[in-house]
Write a structure and sequence with these properties.
Elements (H helix, E strand, L loop, with lengths): L2 H18 L12 H18 L11 H5 L6 H17 L4 H12 L2 H4 L4
The chain binds protoporphyrin IX containing FE.
The site of protoporphyrin IX containing FE has 19 residues, from helix 2, helix 3 and helix 4.
Length: 115
């Protein structure tokens, strides 16, 4: 994927697409700059870890982090579309792109709570 800088750039675009999308607006309520920066940094770190980087992730596991948010199947689908768009924007080759989408799809059962 091109190492830390490349993953950081992809995840930054992915998260900003999520944050701009009205469907995810409710998740941003009452979150200040620091909390938003923290969530972004932890998501970058987590993606580095799951894509095989020798990275120490300081955040919580996906189930604990997202428990009680009530994330549903439609939100999950839209979330993957934003990830796909961010990967395209950074010209990630088809095979690597599929791998990343598959790695994230594997997190579904830990993040999605409602159909
Ligand atoms: C529909 C999709 C998703 C939504 C709506 C969502 C929403 C959220 C929200 C609201 C938080 C803040 C929770 C809190 O501390 O109060 C959060 C944290 C986080 N999310 Fe997600 N998320 C989604 C998918 C993902 C995916 C696919 C990943 C991994 C690639 C991810 C990684 C993280 C991480 C690492 C944190 C911070 C963990 C920590 O604070 O220890 N999220 N997410």
């Amino acid at each position: 994927l091109g190492g830390y800088d490349s993953i950081a750039a992809i995840v930054t675009d992915y998260v900003s697409l999520l944050r701009k999308d009205p469907i995810f607006e409710k998740y941003a309520t009452s979150r200040g700059t620091d909390k938003r920066a923290r969530d972004l940094q932890l998501t970058i770190d987590y993606m580095c870890k799951v894509t095989g980087g020798a990275h120490y992730y300081l955040g919580r596991d996906m189930k604990t982090t997202h428990a009680g948010l009530g994330i549903n199947g439609l939100e999950w689908k839209v979330n993957l579309e934003h990830l796909s768009e961010a990967l395209n924007k950074h010209n990630v080759p088809a095979r690597e792109k599929q791998e990343v989408l598959w790695l994230v799809e594997k997190m579904r059962s830990e993040i999605v709570e409602k159909e």
